[in-house]
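Is this the right way to post structure tokens for a design question? Let me know if I should format differently. Anyway, here goes:
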């Protein structure tokens, strides 16, 4: 993956100001750095026929504000200010398509675990980011490994909040998978049922119907998950989005795929040593993946309400 130093990007919005990329820094005694007390979003802006558009910005903004709630964190900017900052960051960096990263975290003041009077610092960056799991992955699918690490239970930490500290679990699971020759992990929840990927939701296809773990399975309420459910229902598929999926059901699935703002719609062709279906991208996965890219790159007029043009 290309490093930031190799990218042609020069502006980040930080606490109300547009600052030079290299100056968008924080103190080493920042609360969020020590305790993982931040919330963030991962959003994509796509190059459409009519300019760059941010996909489902309003829903990402909703989740950004909702993620702060368990931490009693107050983002000192309005939705309008964050929206304007995001669009302007994309414009100033001259990006046709982009990955957008808003973050809010407890900042620099003192280091008791209680954040006390620590300010909430907020930043928004945008940069070019190609296919998350590789171009080849979209077409041929990936090999995934069921991680030996379990996902934190929503009784231990709110898993529906996109909190920075949660991602050490994602790192452990993902790196374990990669060390073992797989592209990505599948993480089970505390009960041993399928939860999600380290940064993706997961879908299963069986006998022409679509299944995805319910929100009570300790997953993030993914915006791409929601998008794909809607696209599938519009195409007449039955989608079961409130179910538990056992580990064994992964092996007998006809098709499996991941969804996420970064991962988009990525087929899974193998889980551990078991080939899924015929070991390549399945037909329903392909149909939904095509529908997704036709949507976000605006080869259709559907769901215009999901796009905020830069
Ligand atoms: N689960 C986790 C743990 C994630 O980090 C992500 C990425 N935000 C997702 C699911 C997918 O969510 P979304 O489609 O909103 O990007």
């Amino acid at each position: 993956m290309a490093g930031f130093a190799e990218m042609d990007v020069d502006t980040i919005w930080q606490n109300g100001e547009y600052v030079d990329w290299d100056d968008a820094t924080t103190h080493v005694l920042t609360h969020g750095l020590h305790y993982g007390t931040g919330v963030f979003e991962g959003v994509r802006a796509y190059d459409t026929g009519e300019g760059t558009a941010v996909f489902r910005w309003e829903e990402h903004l909703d989740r950004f504000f909702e993620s702060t709630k368990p931490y009693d964190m107050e983002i000192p900017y309005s939705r309008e200010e964050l929206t304007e900052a995001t669009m302007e960051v994309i414009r100033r960096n001259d990006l046709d398509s982009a990955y957008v990263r808003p973050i809010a975290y407890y900042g620099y003041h003192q280091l008791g675990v209680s954040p006390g009077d620590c300010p909430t610092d907020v930043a928004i960056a945008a940069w070019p980011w190609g296919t998350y799991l590789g171009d080849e992955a979209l077409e041929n699918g990936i090999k995934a490994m069921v991680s030996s690490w379990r996902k934190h239970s929503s009784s231990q930490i709110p898993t529906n909040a996109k909190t920075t500290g949660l991602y050490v679990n994602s790192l452990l699971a993902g790196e374990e998978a990669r060390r073992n020759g797989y592209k990505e992990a599948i993480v089970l929840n505390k009960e041993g049922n399928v939860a999600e990927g380290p940064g993706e939701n997961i879908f299963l296809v069986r006998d022409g119907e679509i299944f995805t773990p319910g929100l009570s399975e300790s997953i993030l309420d993914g915006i791409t998950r929601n998008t794909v459910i809607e696209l599938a229902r519009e195409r007449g598929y039955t989608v079961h989005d409130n179910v538990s999926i056992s580990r064994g059901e992964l092996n007998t699935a006809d098709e499996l795929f991941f969804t996420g703002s970064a991962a988009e719609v990525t087929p899974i062709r193998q889980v551990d040593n078991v080939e899924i279906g015929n070991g390549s991208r399945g037909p329903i996965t392909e149909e939904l993946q095509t529908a997704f890219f036709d949507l976000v790159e605006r080869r259709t007029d559907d769901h215009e309400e999901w796009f905020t043009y830069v």
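Format looks fine. Someone answered above. Worth noting: The chain has two domains: 7-127, 135-296. The two ends are 26 Å apart (CA to CA).
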